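dude i think i finally got it to work??
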Amino acid sequence: MGDARSEFAFIDWIRARTAPHPSVALGIGDDAALIRFDPPGESLVTVDMLMDGVDFRLAETDPRAVGRKALGVNLSDMAAMAGRPLAAVVSVALPKQQGRELAEGVYAGIESLAGQYNVAIAGGDTNSWDGPLVLSITLLGQPTGRGPVRRNGAQVGDWILVTGELGGSIEGKHLSFEPRVNEALVLHQRVQLHSMIDVSDGLAADLYHILDESGVGAVLSADRIPASEAARRLAGNKTALEHALGDGEDFELLFSVSPEDGRRLLSAAPFDTPLTHIGEITAEKGCRLVDAERRSSPLERIGWVHRI
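look at this
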């Protein structure tokens, strides 16, 4: 009889509760998973690593919420390219002092979101060490027939739109956000998306990723940017607008479309998640923020950056 506390016992536990999935021809139990892809057989692949003390604080957080976030950030990246998520592989480095109970809680959080978005858990790797909890998930998906949406297609004159509300994610949204997978697929079907990204580093920082890749600039209307109630509660040393521009981990969709498509989306909302027109793409490089009195100022690249 094997050691009930070994990694193999944990893998057996996961395997026993992992249902068959049509996208997985071979799943947990071999050295690699075999994933089925529909024609033309292209795959979108994204990976995110989360660490205790950086992306969450385990001492203050339910392990289920940590697991849910770990898959959620990958789903948000898949949404940013209007892809359909299919299967995930999960790697986890567990602190030795918490072990199996922690692992099961984390997996339960992953499993809950995987079920919601019909994502197969196809395999992964488990380890233990003397450091903090580290989770890395690689998500595989497929582009739709219209292909993936990239960051580099913004065109001069485009409207810039964003889903949901921004700022103050530290109040709880960074753990409980809903990845905008379904919204992205609906948008991709309804209109021609010229560029798109998910707001993970902050609205300003992520907008600049689009502008840099597309070789264009932008003007944002300060009074249109949808600051969340959490951003307003946090307003003090920073305004609600500054929180909305730079806090990050909102995991909303930021995208550009033609003015005609923008009007079409706003006149007949394609889903319940709010859509806001916050600015326009310009030929002049950089980004400017215009206030309600039409005063214009440069918008800095504020947001989250990992220092290496």
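The chain has nine helices and 13 strands.
im so relieved honestly
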